[in-house]
Amino acid sequence: MAVSLFRSRTASSLNLFANTLRRFSTGVTNTSAQRTPESIVNQMMYSDINSRIGSCMPLSAMRIGTIIHNIELNPGQGGKLVRAAGTSAKILKEPTSAYCLIQLPSGVKKLIDSRCRATIGVVSNPSHGDRKLRKAGHRRWLGRRPVVRGVAMNPVDHPHGGGEGKSKSGGKWGRGSLTPWGKPTKGGYKTRPLKRAEVSNSIYSIHYSCF
User: Fold this and answer.
1) pTM of the entire structure?
2) I want to staple 72 with a disulfide (CB 3.0 to 4.6 A). Which of 8, 116, 122, 123 is the partner?
3) How far apart are CA 205 and CA 164, in angstroms?
């Protein structure tokens, strides 16, 4: 009696499993047959790619206010800007055919070629900057060597070295902040090379002063 009851239950469960499998297979074939190329195109048209985090596309295909990262500087060059952990940039104006106005994490607004590509979203791990180094060796493991102040050196090693006490003065009127090679670092000192127009103006002024 028990054996016959077990056989009947097993047979009923097998029939139920077979019917379920048959229905699933017919449903899959019907849905695959219904997905024509026209339906796929319509679905892609109505899907908002701009709102999908991780999508990579040219800046000209994005909308105003989009949060982006990993931005190219030149088309096809690869991502150069906004790649640090937890950083992001924002599109301030609607991209035109030529340039797109972007606000960087520092607050600087920059015009970038609209053909350059960028990734939508924010870089992960925003708490990276809050990490505490456990000891001095931890900094060395990251490849960061110690930094020694110039006033703690000797005069032969740095322009700020020497003197009595913590002093950077090099004479009666004192001395401004300098690099280890003696170049001024503060007070609006310009370090970039002169442009062509500036060079021509300086030559003209020198020539005119000679007469």
Assistant:
1) 0.53
2) 116
3) 44
Q: Which long-range contacts link 4-13 to residues 24+ away (Cβ below 8 Å)?
A: none
- Residue for token digits 């997905």? 35
Residues 6 or more apart in contact with residue 20 via CB below 8 angstroms: none
Burial (CB count <10 Å: 0-12, 13-18, 19+), residue 150: middle
- Residues 122/130, Cβ–Cβ less than 8 Å: no
Q: How far apart are CA 40 and CA 187, in angstroms?
A: 63
Helices (H), ranges, 35-165: 37-46, 136-141
Tokens of 131: 């990490």
**What token pair was written down for 163?**
């003197």
Query: 72: alpha, beta or left, given left = phi > 0 and alpha = psi -120 to 50?
Result: beta
Number of CB atoms found within 10 A of residue 117's CB: 19
- Degrees to nearest 5, angle at CA 94 with 117 and 63: 60
